[in-house]
Amino acid sequence: MSIFLLKRFFTFIVTLLGASLLTFLSLEILPGDPARVILGIDAPQSAVDALRLQLGLDRPMVDRYFDWLAHLLTGRFGVSYTYNVPVMDLIKHRIGITFPLAILSMLLSVLVALILGIYAASRHNKIGDVSVMGLSQLGISIPNFWLALLLILFFAVNLGWFSSGGFVGWDKGFIKSIQSLILPAISLATVQGAILARFTRSAVLETMREDYVRTARAKGLTRRGTLWKHVLRNAMIPVITIMGLQFANLLAGTIIVEEVFAIPGLGRLILQAISNRDITVVRDVVILLAALVVFINFVVDVLYAVIDPRLKPQDV
Amino acid sequence: MLDIKNLNINLNTVYGDATAVRNLSFKLEKGKTLGIVGESGCGKSLTALAVMGLLPENSWSTGEIIFNNKNLLSLNEDKLCKIRGNSIGMIFQEPMTSLNPLHTIGKQIAEPMILHGKVTRSMIKKEVLNLLDMVGIPDPLKRISSFPHELSGGQRQRVMIAMALSCKPEILIADEPTTALDVTIQKQILDLIKDLIDEFGMSMILISHDLGVIANNVQEIIVMYGGVCVEKGYTKKLINNISHPYSQGLFSAIPTLEMQEDSEQRLKTIPGSVPEITEIPKGCTFQGRCEYVSDICVKNSPNSVKISEDHEAYCFNLDKLN
Ligand SMILES: Nc1ncnc2c1ncn2[C@@H]1O[C@H](COP(=O)(O)OP(=O)(O)OP(=O)(O)O)[C@@H](O)[C@H]1O
Ligand SMILES: [Mg+2]
Fold first, then answer.
1. Do B100 and A214 make contact, defined as CB atoms within 8 angstroms?
2. 3-state secondary structure at position B207
């Protein structure tokens, strides 16, 4: 197990290094001089040059990359140009909103997808199956920002069940906080859940055709008994892979959904930081999210080893 | 005990509906063994699955399968579940894929006994160990917690046998139990099955495409071709006087010891191949590959011709043959 963890840790580091390089380079080629953006178009060139010097933008790219890496490794995040506070402070606040939002929508999506997917598979080609497939097709084709607007219009404006945006803050209590996250979570979860439901359905159907399922029936198990005892666990192996991948999508989705619902989370922070050319913030938050995604994939791999005895932890 | 009357199995394929098994009738008495032999695609597995009530979704069957005075084809699913694994056990063709990869051997063997209430919880482990020992798995205490991928093909088939026999069924259906195995293992497995059948006084339906295997292991033989029975009879009588041209072809396809020594002598095979179920001709199903074919074979289906007591063949040209 320790070899397994060591190997995984190594992959973790290599992946993060790759991600950091990509993040850094893509911000480098972003048009617009951060100093110019911060000071405005009318500022004199001398002031811009002075700020560039202060921000260290005059130094070679390679130096700045390694500087940044060194900072990350020692846990010292940068200071935001625009907010003039350490990036860590900006993140600390917002991660407590974005992370629960992501978890909540992941839970919603997985719960609904598994129930619908399994139900559809057990009613293969019958009306229940066809309805679920139709519903999921609808779910896949609705863009999440548009769904978000529809949800606001219906549940917040018309029915008044939820607030139309913003986040009340955890100090207002758990229920209230979750209430203000529920609409954004639904709009994030819908597409992912619809895809996952379809995937679950086909994984279950495929597993039902396996020889060992026929063996189980030959033992005298009912269709339902076979489904619960033999099909589901086998079918979950591919489904878990997709869940891991979807988590990354979900985090990316928060950028748009937080903007629509005016939720002060990491997604919104990135979006604003990009438009303000607040490069320190963008790259620190992006690398944090990348680390989160890599970590989730690590969890998925561990889950594999738990479910499937054919995989020894060393092989993962 | 088992009486199959006019069994027809129809399939809904992409090319339309087709009859894969036609007018099949046979009886299996208590404690007796019966073999079904024929090339791949003759409908042997479908026949076995029909008895189990586990035909594929796109198929349906007509006729009667009477088991202990009940017609299995008209029983509901709940009643069938009580018979499967309990009174009728089955071993499948593919030992590599027929075990659940995520469950231990012990759990899988215990499952039917728990399901049919054969043992108390406290006795389960002992019972499973007994079964593992009985089918010749070395070191049962260790193997009980092994997973299928840790076992060889032969061992997995032994596990399948233990599972099928765990509830001491009245009938064991073994569908090509050794086809996927090494030649050396094949005989061991067949001997094991035979010994256990004798020990428990069970009946057996053994399915194989190898007439040699069938002739050595069962008391009565049914030769199938294109979904119909072409010849049937007691093993001794049938083997001593193989009558149908197809059975004769099958028989001469069995390799003998002398042949292996003399490599000049090639194995005789039947020219052509089994027709697809959608292309089974009217009249005699074997007409396309038969060297004795005549007009009547194309027009009509042959009726049963009695060769001797307890031995019959379905052919118009039996007189020409001998
Ligand atoms: N679910 C299905 N859908 C369509 N055709 C099928 C289906 N199952 C079986 N068949 C066809 O029915 C015919 C008989 O199949 P069956 O499995 O009974 O053959 P078999 O005699 O057991 O052959 P083998 O020695 O290969 O096991 C074959 O031609 C096969 O292709
Ligand atoms: Mg078969």
1. no
2. strand
